[in-house]
Design brief:
Layout lengths: L7 E8 L3 H12 L5 E3 L13 E2 L9 E2 H14 L3 E3 L3 E5 L8 E5 L3 E10 L3 E3 L5 H5 L5 E2 L2 H4 L7 E5 L3 H13 L2 E5 L9 H8 L4 E4 L2 E9 L2 E9 L5 E4 L3 E4 L3 E3 L30 E3 L11 H23 L3
Parallel strand pairs: 1-2, 1-8, 2-5, 8-19, 10-17, 11-12, 11-17, 12-13
Antiparallel strand pairs: 3-4, 6-7, 7-8, 9-18, 14-15, 15-16
Helix pairs in contact: 1-2, 1-7, 5-6
Bound molecules: NADPH dihydro-nicotinamide-adenine-dinucleotide phosphate.
């Protein structure tokens, strides 16, 4: 039997299930666009791997990332969004507004859509060391919240000096005996509040001007890291069993290369004060098009914009404007 299934047509197809995708879904379903949302491989997106979210308005006591994403999903479903587990594998966006856009799901099913809202977010970056790749999943991780548990009572290192690294270092410090924080400059990029939290955690040791040269290990996994002070060039080995990378993210836009306009780092370019891409009826929201703010609340805001713009685009098209 062929894996190809019959085509399905929808008014609004949303790709991605972070705050941008779900907010777009809430607005699109309330506007009777009957949206179908494909979650991608990580339903809920990046926030499902974060701990406390203290800065999303409406949660005075804070909320965990997974609970917030479950709340957003429930809210989108309440208005009729159909949330499906699946991954967009190919797109064929139409340049003619009379012809629907095509999106292939999981390599087996093609959906045609009058409007597509892209909310595919961003993915963690790695250092690019061969040893990092070798031990990925065997002591190397880009998600402290997912994997920190495995290093309970042990010594670990984390690379990075942004809010993610600061947040993950304090998370790891609760589980691990000692956390070395490798900061490549002589200062943090993270907000003052996060740096303060790191500084007052006794079992975090911050190593400034320090970079990882090689992750060391054997068949059992990681057992150390060779670090270098980039000022003095002095090298040293730390005994650790876990090596965490928290150095930022890259937008998930491979699928749209050569199809949608993007900047040199891969972020989708949208029109000024809009989520419209260079193709009519295709909108982009959240971290996939925002390299400046990258917050859950701003992602939700642009998700709302995308749905409103999709609705207006369809209304104008259907009235023959
Ligand atoms: P950022 O881009 O803010 O920070 C990346 C960090 O990694 C920087 O300190 C950078 O160093 C370092 N880095 C990059 N490449 C390397 C490398 N090759 N070797 C060593 N270090 C490297 O990313 P984040 O993921 O931390 O944050 C992204 C956005 O999300 C930010 O806007 C942040 O504020 C937000 N965020 C907010 C949170 C919250 O409010 N609860 C939690 C997490 C993130 P350098 O400084 O030298 O460039």
């Amino acid at each position: 039997m062929s894996a190809i299934q019959e085509n399905e047509h929808v008014q609004c197809l949303i790709i991605g299930s972070g705050p941008a995708g779900y907010t777009a879904a809430i607005y699109a379903s309330r506007a009777d666009l009957n949206p179908v949302l494909y979650t991608g491989i990580v339903p809920g997106g990046q926030l499902t791997t974060t701990t406390e979210v203290d800065n999303f308005p409406g949660y005075p006591q804070g909320v965990t990332g997974p609970i917030m994403m479950e709340d957003l999903k429930t809210q989108a479903e309440r208005f009729g969004t159909e949330v499906r587990f699946g991954y967009a594998t190919k797109v064929n966006f139409s340049k003619d507004s009379g012809i629907a856009h095509e999106v292939e799901i999981d390599g087996s099913k093609t959906i045609t859509a009058d409007t597509v809202i892209i909310a595919t977010g961003a993915t963690a970056k790695y250092l690019g060391l061969p040893s990092e790749e070798k031990f990925n999943g065997f002591g190397v991780s880009a998600c402290a919240v997912c994997d920190g548990f495995f290093y309970k009572g042990q010594d670990v290192a984390i690379v990075g000096a942004g809010d993610t690294a600061a947040e993950e270092a304090t998370y790891l410090a609760k589980l691990c005996k000692k956390v070395y924080m490798l900061v490549r400059r002589d200062e943090f990029r993270a907000s003052k509040a996060m740096v303060h939290r790191v500084m007052k955690t006794p079992n975090i040791e911050i190593l400034y001007n320090t970079e990882a040269e090689e992750i060391l290990g054997n068949d059992l996994g990681v057992n150390g890291v060779r670090i270098v002070n980039n000022q003095t060039k002095e090298t040293k080995e730390l005994d650790i069993t876990g090596f965490f990378v928290a150095i930022g993210h890259k937008p998930n836009t491979e699928l749209f290369q050569g199809i949608l306009d993007m900047d040199e780092t891969g972020y989708l370019i949208t029109k000024p004060d809009s989520t419209a891409t260079n193709i009519e009826g295709v909108f982009a929201c959240g971290d996939v098009q925002d390299h400046v703010y990258r917050q859950a609340v701003t992602a939700a805001g642009t998700g709302c914009m995308a749905a409103l713009e999709a609705e207006r685009y369809l209304a104008a098209r259907n009235s023959g404007e």
